[in-house]
Write a sequence for this structure.
């Protein structure tokens, strides 16, 4: 699964079934709406990976997409994409949170309850 932001250019590094240098076709399909975005970026070899840059416009926060990369009619790569603007870095224990900005924890360590 790839994790991308909602705006700007997206750089992908993938291991495809067939390496291509040149024009490829990308289909990004939303799993919630079924809408498909088609792009034709240029792919290049990057070590053992194929890399390409695509600008999809504004994507929906918290939505899943299916990424399909084609060389002509042949599908050379498929993956699931999750779109979020949260900072995610597992090395720093920064994980995705559904409640980001909506739920705060109390760390006072007392057992006082306030009833309104």
């Amino acid at each position: 699964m790839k994790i991308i932001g909602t705006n700007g250019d997206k750089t992908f590094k993938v291991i495809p079934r067939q390496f291509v240098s040149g024009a490829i076709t990308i289909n990004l399909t939303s799993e919630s709406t079924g809408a498909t975005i088609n792009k034709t970026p240029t792919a290049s070899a990057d070590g053992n990976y194929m890399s390409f840059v695509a600008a999809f416009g504004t994507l929906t926060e918290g939505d899943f997409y299916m990424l399909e990369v084609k060389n002509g009619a042949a599908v050379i790569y498929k993956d699931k994409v999750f779109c979020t603007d949260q900072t995610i870095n597992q090395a720093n224990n920064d994980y995705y949170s559904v409640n980001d900005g909506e739920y705060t924890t109390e760390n006072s360590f007392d057992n006082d309850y306030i009833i309104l």
Q: What stands out?
A: The mean pLDDT is 86. The beta strands are 2-4, 9-14, 22-23, 25-30, 36-39, 42-46, 49-55, 63-71, 74-83. The chain has one domain: 2-86.
